[in-house]
Amino acid sequence: MNPPLSQRTDAPTAAIPEATPLIFVVDDDVSVRESLELLMQSAGWRVETFASAEAFLDRPRVLAPSCLVLDVGLPHLNGLDLQTRLADRSDMPIIFITGCGDVPMTVRAMKAGAIEFLTKPFGDELLVGAIRSAIERSRVALAHQAALRVLRDRQGLLSRRERQVMALVVSGLLNKQVGGELGISEITVKAHRGQVMRKMKADSLADLVTIAARLSVPPS
């Protein structure tokens, strides 16, 4: 089972090989935790179980394919409230399980991004299928985040003037118009634009526009 929280809380965030996804189970019923742990281990996944939302929140974030199988009716901080706390964790899809779900509860969970809401008892195959789908979503989200970090690193290499030129160019202005906006010559604009294209590794203006959109570069 899991090591004591005192041993995990200060541990650094670790990466787990993509071939071994990590499934988190949060349920206050020990029999449910144990049965789900066995099921998921038999499917070849790593599993960590927690008896409460608070215990799970103490666990350092893991940048690896993962998902959270979450009981709604937890003591103190319930499953829906934990989901709210995890709103920024798009790389960790949530699958809700409950013994007494209702329509408003289900709607709230799904609107907040849950990918499945299962009412106990449910078949093993149904849960395993939902987890497989969640893991694939997690992989896609992690790949997107990694690509975005690369773009942000490249953006960090731009000088202040190059950032200004990039914002104006992707907004549709011609070099002459950019020069007019910034009070510099068209030749200087071309030089800055060339540096922007090189540093951002953009092959074309269309490519640069796409990169700017991903980085949410504000129009000037």
Oligomer: single chain
Report on the biggest sheet.
5 strands, parallel
The second-level CATH architecture of the largest domain is 3-Layer(aba) Sandwich
Write the CATH homologous superfamily of the largest domain: Response regulator
Average pLDDT rating: 88
Radius of gyration: 23 Å
Here the CATH topology of the largest domain equals Rossmann fold
Alpha-carbon distance between the termini? 54 Å
The amount of helix comes to 40-55%
What count of structural domains? 2
CATH class of the largest domain: Alpha Beta
Q: What general form does the structure show?
A: elongated
> What count of helical segments does DSSP give?
10
Short description:
With 220 residues, the chain is of the alpha/beta class.
Task: Give the SSE map.
Elements: H1 5-8, E1 22-26, H2 30-42, E2 46-50, H3 53-57, E3 66-71, H4 79-85, E4 94-98, H5 103-111, E5 116-119, H6 124-155, H7 160-170, H8 175-182, H9 186-200, H10 205-214
Parallel strand pairs: 1-2, 1-3, 3-4, 4-5
Describe this structure as you would to a colleague.
The protein is of the alpha/beta class and 220 residues long. It has 2 domains: 141 residues, Rossmann fold (3-Layer(aba) Sandwich), CATH 3.40.50.2300; 59 residues, Arc Repressor Mutant, subunit A. 52% of the residues lie in helices and 11% in strands. It has a 5-stranded parallel beta sheet with strand order 2-1-3-4-5, with helices on both faces. Strand 1, helix 2 and strand 2 form a beta-alpha-beta unit. Helix 7 packs across helix 10. The longest helix is centred in the middle third of the chain and has 32 residues. It is elongated and about 70 Å long. It starts with a helix and ends in a 6-residue tail after the last helix. The N terminus is likely disordered.
